[in-house]
Amino acid sequence: RDIYSDSYIEGKKSAKQKIDSLDFKSHNIISRYIPSKILDISHQMDIYNDVVSIYHWYDGEVFGVEIYNEKVASMQKQLFEIVWKMAEKR
């Protein structure tokens, strides 16, 4: 599952990519949108097992970090679920 905000859409526009690429159905990913006024998602985060990966590559800014910690992953999963419920299907 994936949550995106206006920052993602603007990034796609500035990269001159089609907004149609937001349709992840062909990749078996379910996406939801949340307005940036509620949560501005400015970087990517993947949560799996006991790992949280945070990364960003845009306009020359590149960073990535992985955190291997059960408690950190558990809390991030809980936060994701809260936002997922608030986000809308598009």
Which features characterize this protein?
alpha+beta, 2 helices, 3-stranded mixed β-sheet, 90 residues, globular, single chain, 3-stranded antiparallel β-sheet, 32% strand, 6 strands
Write the layout of secondary structure elements.
Layout: E1 2-4, H1 6-14, E2 31-33, E3 44-48, E4 51-58, E5 61-68, H2 70-86, E6 88-89
Parallel strand pairs: 1-2
Antiparallel strand pairs: 2-6, 3-4, 4-5
The separation of the N and C termini measures 13 Å
Number of strands: 6
The number of helical runs is 2
Helix content: 25-40%
Q: What is the spatial order of strands in the main beta sheet?
A: 1-2-6
Structural class by secondary-structure content: alpha+beta
Low-confidence runs of at least 5 consecutive residues = none
What value does the average pLDDT take?
85
Strand fraction equals 25-35%
Gross morphology is: globular
Description of the structure:
The structure is a single chain. By secondary structure, the protein is an alpha+beta fold. 29% of the residues lie in helices and 32% in strands. The chain is built from two helices and six strands. It has helices at 6-14, 70-86, and strands at residues 2-4, 31-33, 44-48, 51-58, 61-68, 88-89. The strands form two sheets. A three-stranded mixed sheet has the order 1-2-6. Strand 4 and strand 5 form a beta hairpin.
